[in-house]
Specification:
Blueprint lengths: L1 H28 L4 H13 L3 H12 L7 H17 L3 H8 L10 H14 L3 H12 L8 H11 L3 H12 L12 H13 L6 H9 L4 H14 L5 H13 L3 H12 L4 H17 L3 H9 L2 H4 L5 H14 L3 H14 L5 H15 L3 H14 L6 H14 L3 H12 L6 H17 L3 H14 L4 H9 L23 H15 L3 H11 L6 H13 L3 H11 L1 H6 L6 H6 L5 H11 L3 H12 L19 H10 L13 H18 L4 H10 L1 H10 L5 H6 L4 H21 L2
Helix pairs in contact: 2-3, 2-4, 3-4, 4-5, 4-6, 5-6, 6-7, 6-8, 7-9, 9-10, 11-12, 11-13, 13-14, 13-15, 14-15, 15-18, 16-18, 18-19, 18-20, 19-20, 20-21, 21-22, 22-23, 23-24, 24-25, 24-26, 26-40, 27-28, 27-29, 29-30, 33-34, 33-36, 34-40, 35-36, 36-37, 37-38, 37-40
Length: about 725
């Protein structure tokens, strides 16, 4: 019986196979839809595989394609860019030439890639013609940076640059903007000399105004002196601005005295201020003192007396000549009581004594600020300093008087106001004033629930956080409608992102969001950035446009909250956090506050990548994990950076017994500093310790990390 049934099934199965194969094979052999093909091609192109991208694009490029017009144009653009990547510019040009209408919404982009393909094909005359057309387009300015780079990459000989010289010569052409780059100006100069037409003296001044480094600054200055050129006041101001932005302070110190000769009084004063400021920035404190004793700041360099007193006060302080510094501050106070430099001097002196651990002397200068500068944007900070100073001596009543004054200030930011409300409530509790404390805490929770202080109260002492949070100030999605011009912009930028021109899209969105954009444009921009994984730009958008609303609104699943606290790189963050034994939301919080999710971030201290690792730290952690890492190139790789960063964070957490504040502080300032602070600072609670962290950067950093971590958990784990 079993045998016969088996035979029957054996005969039936081949028949079923014959019947099913066509259906199944039809299912699997069904051509991929155009959107799927596009997605496949786009991923291949992004991953640096142009040949695979072209293969995936083949059905979309065919004459009988079922793709929409939008998808066809994207396919043409990506095909051209893939061919450029394969050094096949003539073929690329055929796709870039598909769009010829000058009123096309993306016409400038097609022109730019025609320019690039002509340059790569060494068709320089045609490239110059395309550049001329592009520079006449209304959106040409956003292309200038990469036009410069293309010209510098391809115009290596006088013959190559010759067709462009006439364009650069035309004073009415937008090509003049290209000459603001010293390298392009040098290329133009070489081309003119090859034609036997050296630059006119006035044309040299454009290069002189825009040096790019020390070498070009020195070269252009030599030409100025040799040719005896006479720059205008505006050109001198631009030169000084360029040198300051390059931080070429030593060169400025050499150059400024000669630039002052024969100038108007107003410009001499401007240059004199730049001179003494440059001396200080270059740390030439002793030289500053010598010039001061010779009485030359005013007579020779036209430095205003108040400015002289202020910068000399700071120079003396750096030389540890505190008595001389105080003497100059008193002179500034007596002779220029209304100077805008006076509050800065008070703040500087107070900060100096605070760093020296002399709180009474620091308080003397903070009090002097409050007495003599009744209206100033930093008045709230000085009131806080005085309140905290008195609280450390258990003078809670006096501390609260300063906090009350601070809460009357209109210009307090949300975190500062929350700090005043939080500690006013705490000090009331220490004075056994329960009702007053409850009132202060209720104001905090009802007005600023999602600040560091609002969250700390809610999570650490929930009995004092019973007040209802405020209604959301964020409009629902269905109440936000784009204008026709805004919708056109969003559509244009979506096209740019799709075809791999995200940098250009970001630039155009940035320009559109200047001033006071509509909430609809801001929100739709956020959606586009999130969709295309532009998390760093998304964080900058949130910081600028949603900062106040998110601090004062109840936490919810509103899209603005998800934009503000996304989960980029989530898979690798989870994996490596588990290996390091830490909460992935903790690692994500560190990543957000360190770099705002910018994998290419480089700090002023040379910390690198998503989790801002110092090269030496990255090298040590790589050795612990037996990883072969190239420093610094590999630290910019998101996966490697996340693995190293979470591993280091896990070690710090183990060292500081998983205490969030101590671990975050040591990640920012180094474990050595944190260990010293824990020994030195006397505190009765963690929140007191935070306020006493000596480094302002670290103090604010641990507050941000705490807030971000708690919000991540509330958003995604609740």
């Amino acid at each position: 019986m079993l045998r016969s049934n088996f035979l029957k099934k054996a005969k039936i199965l081949p028949l079923l196979g014959v019947l099913l194969i066509p259906a199944v094979s039809g299912l699997w052999a069904k051509p991929a839809d155009p959107e799927h093909r596009w997605a496949e091609a786009r991923v291949a192109f992004i991953e640096g595989q142009p040949e695979q991208a072209l293969e995936a694009l083949t059905p979309l490029l065919a004459s009988g394609t079922q793709a929409s017009q939008r998808l066809q144009e994207q396919a043409w653009m990506l095909a051209g860019k893939s061919l450029l990547a394969l050094s096949r510019p003539q073929e690329a040009r055929t796709w870039f030439a598909r769009v010829q209408q000058s009123d096309h919404e993306h016409y400038d982009l097609w022109l730019y890639y025609r320019l690039e393909s002509r340059l790569q094909a060494q068709e320089y005359a045609e490239a110059a013609s395309v550049l001329d057309a592009l520079l006449k387009h209304s959106r040409y300015e956003s292309h200038l940076p990469r036009i410069r780079e293309q010209l510098l990459a391809h115009l290596q000989t006088p013959e190559a640059s010759a067709p462009f010289i006439a364009l650069l010569d035309d004073p009415k052409s937008p090509a003049q903007h290209l000459l603001e780059d010293y390298r392009i100006h040098r290329l133009h100069r070489s081309g003119r000399e090859a034609q036997g037409r050296p630059l006119e003296k006035s044309e040299w001044l454009q290069a002189w105004q825009h040096p790019i480094d020390l070498e070009s600054a020195q070269e252009s200055q030599k030409v100025l002196q040799k040719e005896k050129l006479s720059p205008s006041d505006a050109e001198v101001r631009q030169r000084v601005s360029s040198l300051r932005s390059l931080r070429l302070y030593d060169h400025l110190i050499e150059e400024l005295p000669s630039l002052m000769k024969g100038r108007s009084k107003e410009l001499r004063v401007h240059l004199g201020k730049s001179y003494i400021n440059s001396l200080f920035r270059a740390r030439n404190y002793s030289q500053m003192v010598r010039i001061y004793h010779r009485g030359e700041y005013g007579k020779r360099y036209s430095v205003p007396r108040a400015y002289e007193y202020y910068w000399m006060m700071r120079a003396y302080q750096r030389l540890k000549r505190t008595k001389d510094a105080r003497f100059l501050l008193y002179k500034l106070e007596k002779e220029f009581p209304d100077s805008g430099l006076l509050p800065l001097a008070y703040e500087y002196m107070g900060s100096y004594y605070q760093a020296q651990r002399e709180p009474k002397k620091a308080a003397f200068w903070w009090r002097r600020f409050l007495e003599r500068v009744p209206s100033h944007q930093d008045r709230g900070e000085m009131l806080w300093n005085m309140a905290w100073h008195h609280s450390r001596g258990k003078g809670y009543l006096t501390a609260n008087k300063y906090l009350e004054q601070g809460l009357e200030q209109e210009q307090l930011g949300p975190e500062t106001k929350a700090k005043f409300l939080y500690w006013r409530g705490k000090f009331h509790l220490r004075l056994k004033q329960q009702d007053a404390a409850r009132q202060s805490f209720e104001l905090l929770v009802s007005q600023l629930p999602n600040t560091y202080y609002g969250l700390r109260l809610k999570l650490e002492e929930p009995k004092w956080a019973q007040a209802a949070p405020p209604a959301s100030a964020l409009k629902p999605e269905d109440q936000l409608e784009l204008s026709s011009s805004e919708a056109k912009l969003i559509k244009h930028c979506e096209f740019l992102f799709e075809v791999g021109d995200g940098d250009l899209a970001l630039l155009r969105l940035q320009i559109a969001l200047k001033g006071k954009p509509s909430e609809a444009l801001v929100r739709h921009t956020g959606k586009v950035l999130e969709q295309h994984h532009q998390y760093h730009a998304l964080q900058k958008l949130v910081t600028r446009h949603f900062f106040q609303d998110l601090k004062s609104s109840g936490l919810s699943q509103h899209p603005a909250w998800i934009m503000a606290f996304p989960r980029p790189y989530w898979e690798q963050v989870q994996r490596y956090s588990e290996d390091a034994g830490i909460d992935p939301y903790w690692a994500l919080s560190i990543m957000r506050e360190e770099s705002l999710f910018d994998p290419q971030a480089v700090s002023s201290a040379n910390a690198l990548g998503l989790m801002q690792l110092m090269p030496a730290t990255a090298k040590d952690v790589a050795r612990w994990n037996k990883m072969n890492v190239r420093i610094p190139e590999d630290i910019f790789d998101p996966q490697i950076n996340t693995r190293l960063g979470t591993s280091y964070l896990g070690r710090l957490a183990g060292r500081f017994e998983d205490e969030l504040i101590f671990t975050a502080g040591s990640y920012n300032a180094g474990p050595g500093n944190m260990k010293n602070w824990l020994k030195r600072i006397q505190y009765r609670s963690l929140e007191e310790f935070v306020e006493d962290i000596p480094f302002e950067e670290t103090r604010e950093y641990v507050k941000r990390v705490y807030r971000t971590y708690q919000i991540y958990k509330l958003l995604y784990q609740s």
